[in-house]
């Protein structure tokens, strides 16, 4: 392969176009499908298309830019090898690109990087070197080693060859659908957004290009406000693929000039977009991979967009499997399909039932309660919504009118992240109680049946329930009971729910009893 001519420091759009057309990325990448999302298209009254970069060999678009740069190295540079710092998709892109070209690669990764990512780098032919407590420390060490060993450092985004490689995605989009109205792109360091935007605006300037940032790592918005790249004081790591403290100089130049707009979204909105992608096209996106869809949904609502063709990039699917638990819990909040509330109810028989009746049959998604004192009970409640914020406000008004003290926790990050799992503790007085685990059928009326059968005759001293989307919900309930209560046993049998007496459970005695 002939050595390619390096791009200037600040290429013009025509130079980026030529570089993208000549980039040999298809020696290792695939032309990924542009797929219609029928369900969300109907919901948003637009034609929504997703560019499936999760289908790349490394399950991310990063392979395009990495291969574009590495393939352009001269003979001497190839012989010495390449190095980069990354704990994610860029690491795998560099490893596979170098391996394809028979070039040694050293990938500096923070010490706390998950084993699955380290193993992925090895599987693609890279040599991982564990160093530092975070990306910045790993990156500093990689730059030092590049100088010491005469290795070529492969930056993750701020290099014209990398930007041109990412720009090949724009060429595919235009070939797959030349009638797009808007394209939504995730922004971390800005490589993908810059590469796509400069080419789209050079070839078809009527198409709007919108960047999407996570609120916790909005380095482009910060740079736009300051007029130049600046360091963020802190960066959230939920969408780790875009968790960048400072946007690149060249990527900022291009994004500021060629992006039509930028929108930011919170973690709950990202979680909702992860769910949308799974339900519509059965893709399991990493949080940063669903970022563009989250931004699209917000933008469509803000600007009342209808009957347009809107494309977004699913940028990656290297998700940490255990993070899906968090995504599942938060996605309903992101879609305004759940309200979380703290409610004070009287501590007496039947008050739980009266509260649920006031909810008007709305499904309860979560209920946390522990006996506190003889006067009031403080409960943490999740309620499923069908009409978003309007219904949430209506519920709050109904509860207030019903005499309940209620606090809306739906937008309280601490409540959602921590407090919901810490409700309760030890009772303020000794209780004669027994603890039961139940399997509730996930059907309307299941909770009310439970309360009518048991909650009006015996005081419920502890209750925890959370829906997990299965046929049965798991419930833990405590009751104040005398030593012999044959009527309770009879009612328990009449209820007909699978249950077990777990009063002897050591965790219960260790954490929740006197």
In short:
With 514 residues, this protein is α/β, with parallel strands linked by helices.
Describe it for me?
- The chain has 514 residues and is α/β, with parallel strands linked by helices.
- The chain is built from 20 helices and 18 strands.
- Strand 3, helix 5 and strand 4 (105-109) form a beta-alpha-beta unit.
- The longest helix has 17 residues, at 160-176.
Strand residues, percent: 15-25%
Care to count the β-strands? Answer: 18
Number of helices: 20
* Percent range of helical residues: 40-55%
* Amino- and carboxy-terminal Cα gap: 76 Å
Integer average pLDDT: 88
Given the C-alpha coordinates, what overall shape results?
elongated
- The whole-angstrom Rg is 27 Å
Which secondary-structure class do the elements indicate? alpha/beta
Strand neighbour order, sheet with most strands: 14-11-13-12-16-17-15-18
Contiguous uncertain segments of 5+ residues: none
Q: Describe the sheet with the most strands.
A: 8 strands, antiparallel
Topology:
Elements (H helix, E strand, L loop, with lengths): L12 H10 L11 E3 L1 H7 L2 E6 L9 H10 L3 H6 L1 E4 L3 H12 L4 E5 L5 H9 L3 E4 L4 H15 L2 E2 L6 H17 L5 E5 L4 H13 L4 E7 L4 H8 L22 H10 L2 E5 L1 H15 L9 H13 L5 E6 L8 H12 L3 E9 L4 H8 L5 E7 L5 E9 L3 H14 L3 E4 L4 H5 L15 E9 L4 H10 L4 E7 L5 E9 L5 H10 L2 E4 L4 H6 L3
Parallel strand pairs: 2-10, 3-4, 3-6, 4-5, 7-8, 7-10, 8-9
Antiparallel strand pairs: 1-2, 11-13, 11-14, 12-13, 12-16, 15-17, 15-18, 16-17
């Amino acid at each position: 392969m002939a050595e390619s001519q390096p791009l200037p420091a600040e290429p013009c759009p025509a130079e980026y176009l030529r570089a993208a057309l000549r980039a040999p990325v298809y020696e290792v990448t695939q032309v990924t499908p542009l797929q219609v999302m029928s369900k969300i298209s109907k919901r948003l009254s637009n034609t929504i298309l997703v560019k499936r970069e999760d289908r790349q060999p490394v399950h991310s678009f990063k392979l395009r830019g990495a291969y574009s740069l590495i393939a352009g190295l001269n003979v001497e540079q190839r012989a010495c090898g390449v190095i980069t710092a990354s704990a994610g998709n860029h690491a795998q892109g560099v490893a596979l690109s170098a391996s394809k070209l028979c070039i040694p690669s050293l990938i500096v990764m923070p010490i706390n990087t998950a084993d699955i990512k380290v193993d992925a780098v090895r599987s693609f032919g890279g040599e991982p070197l564990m160093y530092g407590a975070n990306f910045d420390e790993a990156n500093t060490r990689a730059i030092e080693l590049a100088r010491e060993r005469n290795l070529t450092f492969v930056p993750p985004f701020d290099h014209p060859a990398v930007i041109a490689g990412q720009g090949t995605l724009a060429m595919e989009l235009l070939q797959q659908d030349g009638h797009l109205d808007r394209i939504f792109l995730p922004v971390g360091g800005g490589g993908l957004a810059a590469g796509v935007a400069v080419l789209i605006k050079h070839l078809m300037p009527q198409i709007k290009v919108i960047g999407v940032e996570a609120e916790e790592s909005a380095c482009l918005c910060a740079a736009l406000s300051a007029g130049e790249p600046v360091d963020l004081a802190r960066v959230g790591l939920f969408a780790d693929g875009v968790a960048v403290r400072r946007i690149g100089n060249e990527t900022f130049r291009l994004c500021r000039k060629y992006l039509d707009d930028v929108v930011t979204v919170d973690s709950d909105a990202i979680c909702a977009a992860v769910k949308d992608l799974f339900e519509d096209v059965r893709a399991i996106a990493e949080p940063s991979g669903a970022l563009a869809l989250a931004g699209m949904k917000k933008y469509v609502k803000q600007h009342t967009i209808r009957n347009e063709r809107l494309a977004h990039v699913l940028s990656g699917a290297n998700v940490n499997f255990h993070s899906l638990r968090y995504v599942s819990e938060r996605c309903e909040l992101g879609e305004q399909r759940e309200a979380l509330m703290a409610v004070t109810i009287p501590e007496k028989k039947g008050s739980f039932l009266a509260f649920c009746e006031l909810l008007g049959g709305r499904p309860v998604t979560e209920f946390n309660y522990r006996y506190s004192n003889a006067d009031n009970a403080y409960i943490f409640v999740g309620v499923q919504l069908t009409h978003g914020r309007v219904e949430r406000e209506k519920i709050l008004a109904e509860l207030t009118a019903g005499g309940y003290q209620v606090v809306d926790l739906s937008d309280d990050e601490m409540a959602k992240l921590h407090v919901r799992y810490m409700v309760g503790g030890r009772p303020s007085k000794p209780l004669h109680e027994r603890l039961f685990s139940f399997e509730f059928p996930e059907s309307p009326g299941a909770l009310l049946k439970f309360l009518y059968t048991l909650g009006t005759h015996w005081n419920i001293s502890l209750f925890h329930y959370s829906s997990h989307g299965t046929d049965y919900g798991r419930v833990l309930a405590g009751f104040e009971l005398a030593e012999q209560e044959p009527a309770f046993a009879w009612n328990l049998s009449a209820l007909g729910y699978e249950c077990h007496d777990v009063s002897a459970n050591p965790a219960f005695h260790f954490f929740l009893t006197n």
